[in-house]
Specification:
CATH architecture: 2-Layer Sandwich
CATH topology: Alpha-Beta Plaits
Order of helices and strands: EHEEEEHEH
Shape: elongated
Strand content: 25-35%
Structural class: alpha+beta
Strand order of the largest sheet: 2-5-1-6
Radius of gyration: 16 Å
Number of strands: 6
């Protein structure tokens, strides 16, 4: 029976969150990097940019075995947020869902704002 997947918060080298998210996907895991959408107007041209909301952090959904393998495989992943008992803290699915909804709602409301 395969282990159950849980969400964990990885502490990563800043500016590598998106690259590491793509790399983690290769290990049958999920990754989530909350991004803030900004729109800058330069005359008639709108430029859309996405910036990481929590620099230095990456949400990873993996089995415990995959989490440990990922930690050993990527030097840019420093550690996973600890739970205080020697293991990694598990983030409930509901909190990730809430975070995704909040980010999506914020990005939708910023779609036409000038920054």
């Amino acid at each position: 029976m395969p282990s159950e997947k849980h969400w964990y918060l990885a502490v990563v080298k800043p500016n590598l969150e998106r690259k590491l998210a793509k790399d983690v996907l290769k290990f049958d895991c999920e990754a989530f990097v909350p991004l803030r959408k900004t729109v800058a107007m330069d005359g008639d041209k709108a430029t859309i940019r996405y910036s990481v909301i929590n620099p230095g952090f990456l949400y990873v959904r993996a089995t415990e075995e995959a989490r440990q393998f990922i930690l050993r495989s990527f030097a840019a992943i420093y550690r996973f947020l600890p739970n205080g008992r020697g293991g990694a803290a598990i983030i409930p699915d509901s909190e990730i869902d809430d975070l995704r909804r909040t980010v999506d709602a914020s990005n939708a409301s910023n779609a036409g704002n000038e920054v």
